[in-house]
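Exercise 7. Predict the joint structure of the components listed below.
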Amino acid sequence: MNRTSTRRVAVPAVAALALGLSLSACGAGNESSSSDQTNAAASSGATLSGTLNGAGSSAQEAAQGAWTAGFQSANSGVTVNYDPSGSGAGVEQFLAGAVSFAGSDAYLDDTQLASSKKVCGGKTAIEAPSYISPIALVYKLDGVKNLQLSPATAAKIFDGTITTWDDPAIKAENKGASLPSTTITPVHRSDDSGTTKNVTDYLHQTAPKDWPAQAGETWPFKSGEGANGTSGVIQAVTNGTGTIGYADASQAGKLGVAAIKVGSSYVAPTADAAAKAADVSKKVAGRGPTDMAMNVNRTTTQAGAYPLVLVSYVIACPTYKDAKTADLVKGYLSYVVSSDGQAAAGKAAGSAPLSGSLSSSASSAVKQISVR
Amino acid sequence: MSASTAVRKPRQRVGDRVFSNLTRLAGLAILVALAAVAIFLTLQGLPAFSAPSDKLGGAANLATYVLPLVFGTLLAAVLALLIATPLALGVALVISHYAPPRLARPLGYLVDLLAAVPSVVYGLWGLAFVSVRLTPAYAWLEQHLGWIPLFGGPASTTGRTILTASIVLAIMVMPIITAITREIFLQTPTLNEEAALALGATRWEMIRLAVLPYARSGIVSAVMLGLGRALGETMAVAMVLSASGVVTFDLISNTNPSTIAANIALKFPDSTGVAVNALVASGLVLFVITFVVNFAARWVVARSERTQA
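Solution:
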C-alpha cells in the first residue's frame, strides 16, 4: 500500500525531473554570454562605495584584468569591474551614465563627444590612450619563414586578387624564399571587430588603389574565410594550409608573422615598433588638451615603426558628481597610463607600453578629473 | 502521499480547483511568453525596415539583408536532416527491433546522452576536430566530383564549410529524432507484426509493411522537431562555419552562407542602434519560419492520420 503510493508520486516526479533536465540541456548551449554581461553591468550602479564600474573594448580585456589586479592589490577595499562587452556597447553605457569609464578601440566621434557633455556635467569627455597593440598578419605556410609583404600585396591577398603563394608579386618581395603554389586562404573576422577596422583602415590608407573599401568593423568582402573572434582566426589559420589572417600580435603563437613594408624596409610587429607608430601619429584637430584622440599615421615612413597598430582608449568624465567616484576613476586611470600599469599590461597582454611622452601627457589628462 | 489516500473526501474539491487553475495558469504562461516574444521581435524589428545600408552590412534593404541568411539557415538545416534522418531511423530500428534487449538499452541511453552534450562543446569539436579531418575529403570531392555544382570548390583548406556545419548539426539532431521514433516503433501493435511474419514476410518486409506505415506520422513529427533544433542552433554553427553571407550551393568552399541564429550571435556584441534592430528583425524571420515549419508538420501529421483511419 505504502509502496504503491510512493510509486505514484515517484514515477511522475522522475519523469518531470528527466524532462526538465533534458530541456535545460537543450537550452543551455544557446544562451549568449553577452546577455549575462549586459545584465551584470546594468544592475550594478555607478556610485557604489569602493566599487568602480567600466565597460567596453574586449581587446583591452586582458590588460584591464592586469590593471584591476594591480590597482586592487595597491588599494584593498576597492573593487574594479570591467565588462568587456565591446567598444560600441561600452561607449553607449558610458554615455548613458551606467558605467564610470569606458574602454574603446575607437575615439568618440563628434556626435558622441557632444553627447558626453550630458553625462559629464557640461564638459566633454577625457580620452587617453591606454592600450597600444600591434596587429600581426599571421600565416601558415610550411617552409616559409619571415614573409615580407607590402601594403599593396597584402591588400591583393586579402581581397582575393592574388590566389596562390607563388604569385610574382609575393615572389618579388621575398627573394630567396621557396614559395609553393599553394592556394591562399585569407581568413578574416566573421564578427564585427575593432581589429578589422584597424586592418581595413591600414590597407585603405596605404594601398587605396588596391583597397578602395573604407575602414569598417565589418569585413567588406564576401570572399575569403570568416572566423569568430581572435581565437577563431588563430584556430582557422593553424588548421589550414596556405592560410593568412590578422590578429593581435600577442596571440600569434607558433604561426608565421609577416613583416610589412614601411618606407623602404620591412618591419615586424613588435611592441617597440608599435609604440613608435603611435608616437608619430597626430592628435585629432580641434579637441581640447585632455582629449588625446589620435589618428594613427598609417602611411608613416619612419624607420622601425609598425603602423598596423590598434590604439585603444580609456574614456572618462573630467568631473563627477560625487567625490568618491571621481577619486576612484582618477586613481585607477592614473595607474593605467603610468609606466607601472603599462608594464603590467605588456606582461599580461603583450601590448606595447606607451612611450614616455605619451604616458606623461595621458597622466596629466587624467589628473584633471575632479568633483563638480 | 496523503493526497492519494484521501481521494473521496469532499474537501479535496478545493484542491481540484486549485490544481485545475494552476494547470490553466501554466498553459496561459506559455501563450503569454510566446506572445511577449512575438511582440518584442515585431516592435524592435520594425525600425530596421528603414535602416540605412551601412547598418545592414552593405545590403540595400532589409530583404536583401535577411534573404541570404534565410537561405543559409534552410540549407544547413535541410542538409543536416538529409544526413540525420536515415541515420536516426536506422539507429531507432536497431534499438526497437534488431538488437537484443541487453544491447538495445545501453545503446538507447548512449544516444540520449548525445542530446545532453551542450552545443558549445559540439562547436569546439567541430572546429578543432571534425573540420580538420574532413579537409582531405573535400579536396577529393573537388577533384573527382567537381563537375557537380555542389562540390565545385575551390575546396576549403580549413574544412570549416557548410557541409561540416551540417554534419555537426546532424549529430546534434540525431538523438532527438532517434528518441521519438524509437518509442513509436516500439508501439507498433504486436498483432500487426506477427500477422506480417505469419504471411511469410522477412524481418525487413515486416518492418516495411507493419512498422513504418504505423509510425509514419510519428516519424514526420520527429523529423520536424529535429528541423526546429537545426534551424535555431546558434553556437555550434557560429563556431564551425566560415560565414561570408553569400548565396551559393557550393558546399565545400570557404565562402558559405551564414545562418540567422549564427549571424545574430556573431554581430550582436558590437552592434549599436539600428544594426541591433536589423538583427532582431532577422530573429523575427527565424521565429516565423520555425512557426511555419511546426504548423506544416502538424498538418502533415493530421493528414496522414486521416488517410490511415
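Discussion. The radius of gyration of chain B is 24 Å.
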